[in-house]
Design goal:
Elements lengths: L1 H9 L17 H8 L23 E4 L16 E4 L12 H30 L4 H15 L2 H15 L17 E4 L4 E3 H7 L1 E6 L6 H12 L1 H6 L2 E7 L3 H11 L5 E3 L4 H5 L3 E3 L2 H9 L4 H4 L6 E3 L2 E5 L5 E6 L9 H10 L2
Parallel strand pairs: 1-2, 5-6, 6-7
Antiparallel strand pairs: 3-4, 3-7, 5-10, 8-9, 10-11
Length: 340
């Protein structure tokens, strides 16, 4: 279970292995307990520590007291962490008694992993997304003339009152979708909801600096979303080539979906069209929205973030016509904790 949880919560940060003193088979109750939270470990294999005797590690975590001493066999310098948990395999009683122990240990392991991540994040002193955006805006306004800034501000104000760009609200039914990711694979909202909650981020494109800051921040918090039982997807009108660029740039571990013609964005009431005046400004900046969008039009989504509960209802909605305002990852996390 520990291997499955760590892969799920931090597979983008760590290469994860697990082993025991006396390997047998993966316990069916462990498979059941993990399946309940949307993690499939049926394909995992019980391994012996002897398989890794010559391998160096950064961290070695023992989950049971009786294997603590065995960790001294690994070469090199590493941080040893001992959790000394009850071995659920030794549980007695009825099926319900036993599965209850596996669930208990699963949750303790998850909490321990999250506590470890908390220390890692604290060390990095990660800036809030709002702080990063404000730093960029401060520099941007210094480089752009007042007339251009005025045009951009007035256009945002017009978008803010457009009926087609108001966005769905918390409590609304989430429109289902089936879209291609950056690799051409189909991703369906209905299938994702069977696994857990879903965080959806609508963004304008890889050309947008605010979108890049937001997407990077979402990636930085991906393990936090997953720990709360949520999958993350981002939706853009850009062609898959540009989606692939942003995936590679930020080493994303979640799918970027192409919404040709902003069809899904329309369902979520997020669509607007760039004015001729603003489009000319963008082209002056070297941004050709019509060439980058999959349908070769200059329609865009209002940047928005939604949390969809497993029941298909929107539990949280952040929609702002001012594209420099984005949902703070910590706010998404707080709302995920209250989401059904």
């Amino acid at each position: 279970m520990a291997e499955g949880l760590l892969r799920h919560l931090a597979g983008e940060r760590f290469e994860v292995f697990s082993a025991g003193i006396k390997p047998t088979t993966v316990n069916p109750l462990a498979i059941k307990a993990m399946d309940e939270i949307g993690i499939d470990i049926a394909g995992q294999r019980s391994k012996s520590v002897s398989e890794f005797i010559d391998q160096e590690f950064n961290y070695v975590i023992t989950v049971c007291d009786n294997v603590r001493q065995t960790c001294t066999i690994f070469p090199g310098k590493y941080q040893k962490i001992s959790w000394d948990l009850e071995d659920p395999v030794l549980a007695c009683g009825s099926y319900e008694d036993k599965i209850a122990i596996f669930r208990k240990i699963r949750e303790i392991i998850k909490e321990n992993i999250l506590n470890l991540f908390g220390k890692i994040k604290e060390d990095k002193k990660m800036k809030l997304l709002k702080e990063q955006i404000n730093e960029f805006k401060t520099n941007f306004v210094k480089q752009v003339d007042e007339k251009t800034l005025k045009v951009m501000k007035e256009f945002n104000e017009k978008v803010a009152v457009k009926e087609s760009a108001q966005g769905l609200k918390a409590g609304d039914n989430a429109p289902l979708f089936s879209l291609k990711n950056h690799l051409g694979e189909t991703v369906e909202l209905q299938s994702l909801l069977k696994k857990g909650k879903v965080v959806i981020s609508f963004y304008r494109g890889e050309w947008c600096p605010y979108c890049n800051l937001e997407i990077k921040a979402l990636q930085d918090h991906l393990s936090d979303f997953q720990a709360l039982g949520a999958n993350l997807v981002a939706i853009t009108p850009e062609s898959p080539d540009h989606s692939l660029s942003i995936v590679e740039k930020h080493q994303l571990k979640f799918p970027i979906l192409t919404d040709v013609g902003n069809t899904i964005a329309k369902d979520y009431k997020l669509v607007f069209e760039l004015s001729e005046e603003l489009n000319t400004i963008y082209e002056r900046f070297g941004i050709y929205v019509e060439k980058r969008n999959a349908d070769h039009r200059r329609t865009l989504p209002v940047p928005a973030t939604f949390i969809i509960g497993r029941n298909g209802i929107i539990d949280y909605a952040f929609v702002d016509a001012d594209y420099s305002n984005r949902a703070e990852p910590d706010e998404i996390i707080a709302n995920l904790k209250n989401s059904k």
